[in-house]
Amino acid sequence: MKKVWLASIALLVGSSLQAQILKPVQWSYAAKKTSPTEAVVYLKATIDPGWHVYSQHVKEGGPVATSFKFTPGAYALQGPTQEPTPITKLEKVFGMEVSYFEKQVIFQQKLKLTGKTPLTVKGTLEYMVCDDKQCLPPEEVSFTVPVK
Question: What is the C-alpha separation between 68 and 141, in angstroms, rounded?
Fold first, then answer.
C-alpha cells in the first residue's frame, strides 16, 4: 500500500512540475515628461538568462516581431517606437538572420501631450521569446503607464 501511495505522490509532483508555465520575460513601464507638452514612455523587458526577445524589425518568415499598440488618448505618438541596436545572428530554427535582445531591452515612445496631465497611456504589446531549444507562443500584454 505504501508503494502505491508513494508512486501516486511521485506522479502528482512530476506532472505539476511539467505543468509549470514558463515566464522568461517580465515587463515594467515608466514615463517621464520632457517638457510641458512632451513625454517619453519606457517599456522595459527583463529577460531570463538564455532567452531572447525579438526586435520590432523582423523579416517575413521569421519569428513574431515585438509590436506596440497605443490606445488613443490625450496625446499623439511622435514617430515610431524606438529600440536600441539589437543582436543580429543566424537562427537555424528560422533559417535566417534575426535581430533580438538578451538580458533586457528598453523600448521608448515619444509623445506630444494634447491634454492636461496627469494622464495615463494605455496599450498592448506583443512579443515572442525563444531560447536555443524552444520558442514560446507569442504573448500579448496590456500596459498602463501614468504620465505626471
Answer: 10
Radius of gyration of the chain (CA): 20
Buried residues in 76-105 as b, exposed as e (16+ CB within 10 A): eeeeebebeebeeeebeeeeeebbbbeeeb
Q: Is the pTM of this model over 0.90?
A: no
pLDDT tens, position by position, for the chain (148 residues)? Answer: 444 333 333 333 343 444 568 999 999 999 999 999 999 999 999 999 999 999 999 999 999 999 999 999 999 999 999 999 999 999 988 899 999 999 999 999 999 999 887 899 999 999 999 998 899 999 999 999 999 8
